[in-house]
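Problem: given the chain below (541 residues), write out its structure.
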Amino acid sequence: MNDSVATRSRLLPGAALLIAVLVALPLLAVVGRIADPSAADSWAHLLSTVLPDYVRNTLLLCAGVAFGTFMLGTFAAWLVAAHRFPGRDLFAWALVLPLAMPAWIVAYVYTDWLQFSGPVQSLLREFTGWQYGDYQFPPIRSLGGAIVVFSLVLYPYVYLLARDAFLDASGTLRDAARSLGSSYFGALFRVALPMARPAIAVGLALAMMETVADFGAVSYFGVQTFTTGIYRAWYSLGDPVASAQLSALLLAGVIALLVLERRARGRARFVARTGHRDAEPVALAGWRAWLATLACALPVIGGFLLPALLLGMLARGHLDLLDATRYITLSANSALLSTLVAVVAVLVALLLGYAARGARRSVQAVTGAAGFGYAVPGTVLAVGVLTLASAFDDLLFRLNDNELPPLLLGGSLALVVYALVVRFLALAQGSIDAGLARIQPSMDDAARALGESRHGVLRRVHAPMLAGSLLTALLLVFVEVMKELPATLMLRPFGFDTLATQAWLYAADERLGEAAWPSLLIVLVGLLPVLVLTRRGGGAN
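Solution.
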């Protein structure tokens, strides 16, 4: 028995280390490609041509989205957490709905609605008699348009964390600030916001990482960022070295963002409920109450309701373009890929969770590092995975006496599954780690004392308690893979399209009517994790 325990104690940490290495390999491949002999010439070319635009646009986009998500998410969270007004209980969960909308879908829906030939400008010209050139209308396909779209879609990251922080904050401290002469807004800015600052910082970091990782929206809007540059360098220019260099630079930026976020958390503690009295929500009346309702309604309308309505109208208006057979194939491909990735990610996360349970800090650090792939943009992962696959297939070519063998990795579905498991493993880890945290070691000891074997403890104690966490992890990963675009677009086998890749390809070709149906299916599936979030997260007090 002791030998069996000792063997397991060695196998689990060893498996965790192997998984961490597999997660790190694509990133190491990206960094290693910089050592290519032609790297210096490639850097010089990038610096003299496109790199300044990529850096400027990416930084401006992140800064704009950070400001937009902070304003929308924090203000809505403060209203819901600390006030009573008409619709407050509804908005407590409805403000999360924009998470179901991929940014690139919102981008092309709003473009169809606001472009020169769209209904808004057409109606404007009809009422005024204006012609082209007689008026100025803000261009939706611009850096400003991208900032607005990302802010409307990503503010829930800030809202969810800021709302929980405001709800957890002790009301005694705010009342003390008011009694010492602070105004209502003084108590907000001097007490509530500083206490919630770490949570808001995490939300902003998540929103900015999603912005940096996006490919579909910025590509459709024609905004040249690192992600579009990586895709263009690999596919349009056929320059894998330049693509790897851009990927490495973007990866360095993401790591810097993670370090800043961790330092922000390290310098300030998250607020937590104490024995102090919770703050009573302030009851708003009159115009203030309806202004609060409007302030919470606008993000929901702009980030979910209006895009969903426009998407439904666009799909309904193009019923003749509905190719049922094609969409059944696309749905089957999406379901197959999502199921494979979800199952593998959950199994791997379960192994990592048990490896870290009660293990040394070094093992826990290894299991934590395995979830780093979620912070890496899909285009960067794709470049790393393609580099690995190319090296592997080249090795087979050499071992086979330079007779070209079939490509075993390049262009295979296994390559896509590998990249997406690396990308979304952290989602499964988060759910499963939370479930394992509820299983105290004393429960295992009690079950063993009552005569249960080790397998019996797993089957009769752990399995029932982990069932909800496993289901949540499967669901979250499944839906994220359904929506994922850049890695799937770059790695998919020839002739293998998903709902996401097909919708984007239609939209990129301005075939918006045909893009509406797969997009609508993606949004409907995307509602599932939002419902899970609202059910598990609860509402306002």
